Amino acid sequence: MSERSGFGRRRFLGTTGAALLGGVAGCSNLPGTGSDTGGEFTWDTATFRGSGPIVSGRPAPGGTSIRDLPALEGALTLYLGGGEGGLYVDLLNILRKIYPDLTLNVRTDSSSSHAQTIVQEFEAQSTKADVFLSIDAGSLGYVADNGAARNLSSDVRSMVARDHFKTNNWVGVEGRARTIPFNTNSIAASDLPQDVMSIPDQPSLASTMGWAPTYGAFQAFITAMRITAGEDATRQWLSDMLDAGVSRYPDEFLVSNAVADGEVAAGFANHYYALRVQNARPDAPIDLAFTSNDAGALVNVSGAEVIKGTKNPDLAENFVRHLLSSEAQEFFATRTFGYPMVSDVAPVGGLPTIDELDPPEFDLTKLANVSPTLDLMRDVGVL
Amino acid sequence: MANDTLEQLAEQTTAGAESDSRLPVGLTLLAASVAVLVVLPLLWLLDRASMVGVQRALTLLTSTDNLGVLVNSVGLVAAVTLGGVLLGVPLAVLTVQTDLPFRRFWTIASALPLVVPSYIGAFSYVSAFGPRGELADLLAPLGVDRIPSIYGFHGAALVLVLYTYPYVFLTTRAALLSFDATLVEAARTLNHSRWQAFRRITLPQITPGITAGALLVALYTLSDFGTPAIMQFEVFTQQIYVNYRAFGGRDLAALFSLQLVAVTLVILAVESRIGASQRGAYVSRGARRPGEIELGRWKGPALLFAATVTVFCLVVPLAVLLLWLTWENPGYASGALAFSWEYGWNSVLVSAAAAIVCILGALPVAYLSARSESWLATIIDRATYVGYAAPGVVVGFSLLYFGVTYAPILYQTTLILVFAYVVRFLPQALGTARSSLLQVDPKLVEAARTLGHRPTTAFRKVVLPLIMPGVAAGAALVFLTTMKELPATLMLRPTGFDTFVTYIWRVRGSGHYGRAAFPALVLVVISGLSMLVILARERYDVG
Q1: Are B166 and B26 in the same domain?
Q2: A206 with A262, same domain?
């Protein structure tokens, strides 16, 4: 599998860089094809869609259109976890333009910070957030486990295709895969094992990998490893990685950057960070490898939940439905390179489909249980 | 921190004045409530830390993790302090005692790095000397494909030395200027070499000045959040922020905060001890200026030294910022990173509010402490200096906990943000207000009273006009310092509320440096203005 999808990714990476450069003008003058000069804002699918060769010619997205959903009106406070690149904010800005009567207050921070804050606020009965939109299912699970998330109606949950990516309390809005970004000048794809557990044993990777152990997505990956491979194997893996020599970065965008710079030959990061690097530097020698059916191939999701104590639950739920609309799903697929959660919206370009990815069977909510993971990581001396 | 400590230093030089022993009840109550309010964040911090539980606290405190951070913090403070002395003292000697060409220019240039907020210095250093920075680009064609990483201990230490050594420079300079040069001449006539005379006469005389500056450097280094955060070096401030945001890390963040306050208090205690025993030792008493030392063949190396420091402190960051200005903003960076003038307006708004509240809080405390030497007045006065012991990230942590738990109505409002600024910067307003009040002759008030004015009227008609310039300077200082404040703003700002500083931080996090150029330059200019305020007030001799 890795050979085939490796080729597909390479092609994908190359064309994406060009596509994004081509799309610069469109993105910076949001909305691309919309116009609000005459008072009423007009829009269509292209308003949400990125532009460029790999996106052009896409079929119209299926699913539920925004036009079929009730209008968003009123004030909504959104805790946005981990949307550092601001791409989510672009989607929110389009929604603001479509709905002049919608007031969106957005607070950005790391997902883990927001999750703890939401629970803290809930317990003190000073809930501020109506909706929590998090890039990390573990954070959504943490809030739900602490009883701070409302149950979602079946209207919302039925929009998400696979049971993998929804619970009673939250729905995934786009997926992200754990990957091994590697520098194509330093090593070949064949140097990378299919099995994430054997990475520390690869002599070609010794002293030349990068990771971001304080980063939420990495901690989620280790949590998955702890649950799927067991605590002892994980402890061994972490300490073997340390022994083999691994460079530490504050986040996975910087890990991917370091890979592209050749500071390290390979790293651990979510797939879209490599695409962002490529996006900024089309010639960067970076490619992605996937492991199979283990924690290294985990597909995490960005998701949303409605917070208990919200004064406007209907608006909050309707907002979550908007995130699963055809247009928003098209946005995620073409602008953030995520995997759509709605089956009638396809992922872009050469990106392997979610079926091809071979992620482990894994209850994403279990990612919330990071405390033992952190203890383990501290124990080994990683944190 | 930069300005408050300098302010505190300046204030130590102010002479005492007459006082009476009776405490006016209303004034005392007012001053006491200000003191209680600003001390509260430390109590909330204790409250939060007490939730950790003794067993878990002991485990966390003795973990290698915690000890590593403690060692890193102390190590960074030691290295930066030493570095600051090694740069600051020679520069002070060169500009005061030698025939260094363009002495006046080097004096100003050597003090000027104080105007660059250290996080902006760190930011530009990462851009210039980072793995894919300008230097790497420059060297790439020469076959150098890799430069040593700027991140970590040495990067943090380098940047902090460059932007804090002026404290040592200024205090040492003041000591050198005040010291009686005839002593050196006497030593010379007794057959001492220049070096012997320096070591046996000059050095002991200026040591208190050097120590005072070194302690300011130590305090600044300990409390600075931006530089270690950018340089990814794990010290208390950086770890408080990181752990606050990581799962299960808030207990540890609370313990780190307590330890940071404790270490700061130790340094403050050392400082007040030295300050008390050496008070005035490095203050100008109209002493005779020493004769100039002729540098001779050392002129070249001395010039090179001064020029190198200036290049690294000022030319590099300014060049980087100006370079950023010319970068095209990448369009794909999305709307979330677009600059808005609203950020500037927000900065001005909260800073002005902080300045006004600080003045209102400082006046009763300053008036009380200037007019009374009772133990109560002293306690109230000391308590309001809590801002020196509580770095911004600690105040932010404490107020977040307080807001969520006890004051949902204040939580995530500008009110709590302004309160954080007041806790941090009240000492600045206090320093200027008190030194102005001390200069008001109490007989003027008495005269007003004998003319039939009530105490409040006398204060308004006589005292207030006299202290207005000092009060205004204090307000300006608070305003300008608040504009630059990073960690508390980052943690406490209301939802959707961005300032210059939070914008720069956000842009930095996403790697789109070009967008930070304009607000960063604005902040440098603002810091420059706050330097002017300090210099104008203290009439530093830059001759």
Answers
A1: no
A2: yes
